[in-house]
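Regression test case RT-17, inverse folding.

Input:
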């Protein structure tokens, strides 16, 4: 593929190397004049980001909020909204991985509504969101993982309890995504691996749920093919780049492009919901502050061994994406384990540095998580104990 192409699913996506340079044009297209960038502390220091801010500032009154780090919490949202309100921003430019894009969406809510972000969290007492008031969001993803740039929700944790809250509204879907694989070229190997595995987990779990959604099933299978083709290349190139070795730049860019597509496909497919792996991962983030993608990467093979007996035919279809001659769905799980090892991701929770005495804390959080309700095999508290115990090597 060469040049920049457009596809409109589920939102308008301008995809290709250099797509970020269309940002000013996108802002003009909305008739906006006071854009505000929202990004994380790490991105704020990168050359391609500061160049983008310079280009936008040359034409528009521009604000930048970059106090986002770690798993995003409500206070970061409130600090960001104070900046966008102070600037009277009329458009939000969300730049970064899942955390920064989620915080951007949440800022858009508080920017245009009275109250704190937790007032709008999903639940019986949630305050309504008036989509007509929301500023348009333009997203530039810098990782290939959550695919939040094509999603309608934001996950924000409570500052004190670390409980993850969901803010959802159709109006939170970014109006344009500038999907530019060049901005992911500098992502370190360990983050490329962890975020890539998050995308893979979305694709696999969405495919396995019982919900009827053949469109998502098709997207999920093609996304898995792209991950199988390109995740290792992307990680290898990142490793060699860090070691100062020469790499094939064209192959690197092509692998990054595949992963960027795959991550948006994962987030599109999980309209069909997710499953037990995500409940395990959400509990690890809540209890041990584990990186979401890394938690999924460690847990996915254990969770899939649990699921195999419930949907063996679906696992066989997955195995045949990897090897058309596959005879048994278990081969897909063996492939997952091999991929995890080749990407230097720990094969268990102990090597991830999580103490075994956390087991009892993890189980109730995982049980309370919504995701496993869509898992193809029902998951009890005892099942969570068994899955985590295996992951701890107990
Ligand atoms: Zn995820």
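Golden output:
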């Amino acid at each position: 593929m060469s040049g920049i192409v457009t596809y409109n699913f589920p939102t308008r996506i301008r995809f290709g190397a250099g797509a970020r340079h269309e940002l000013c044009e996108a802002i003009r297209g909305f008739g906006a004049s006071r854009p505000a960038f929202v990004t994380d502390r790490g991105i704020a220091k990168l050359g391609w980001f500061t160049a983008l801010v310079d280009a936008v500032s040359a034409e528009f009154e521009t604000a930048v909020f970059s106090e986002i780090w770690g798993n995003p919490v409500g206070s970061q949202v409130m600090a960001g909204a104070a900046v966008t309100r102070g600037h009277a921003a009329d458009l939000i430019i969300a730049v970064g991985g899942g955390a920064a894009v989620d915080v951007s969406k949440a800022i858009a809510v508080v920017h245009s509504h009275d109250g704190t972000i937790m007032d709008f969290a999903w639940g019986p007492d949630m305050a309504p969101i008036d989509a007509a008031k929301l500023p348009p969001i333009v997203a530039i993803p810098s990782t290939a993982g959550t695919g939040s740039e094509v999603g309608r929700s934001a996950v924000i944790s409570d500052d004190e309890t670390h409980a993850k809250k969901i803010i959802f509204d159709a109006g939170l879907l970014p109006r344009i995504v500038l999907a530019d694989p060049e901005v992911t070229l500098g992502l370190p190997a360990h983050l490329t691996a962890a975020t890539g595995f998050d995308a893979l987990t979305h694709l696999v779990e969405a495919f396995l749920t019982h919900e009827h959604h053949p469109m998502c099933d098709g997207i999920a299978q093609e996304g898995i093919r792209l991950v199988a083709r390109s995740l290792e290349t992307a990680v290898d190139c990142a490793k060699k780049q860090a070691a100062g070795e020469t790499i094939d730049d064209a192959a690197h860019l092509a692998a990054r492009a595949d992963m960027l597509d795959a991550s948006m496909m994962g987030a599109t497919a999980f309209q069909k919901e997710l499953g037990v792996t995500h409940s395990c991962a959400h509990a690890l983030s809540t209890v041990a502050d584990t990186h979401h993608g890394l938690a999924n990467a460690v847990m996915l093979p254990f969770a899939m061994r649990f699921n195999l007996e419930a949907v063996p035919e679906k696992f066989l279809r997955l195995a045949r994406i990897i090897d058309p001659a596959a005879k048994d769905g278990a081969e897909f799980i063996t492939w997952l384990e091999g991929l995890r090892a080749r990407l230097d991701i720990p094969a268990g929770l102990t090597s991830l540095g999580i103490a075994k005495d956390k087991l009892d804390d993890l189980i109730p959080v995982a049980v309370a998580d919504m995701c496993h309700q869509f898992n193809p095999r029902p998951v009890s508290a005892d099942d969570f104990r068994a899955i985590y115990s295996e992951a701890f090597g107990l």
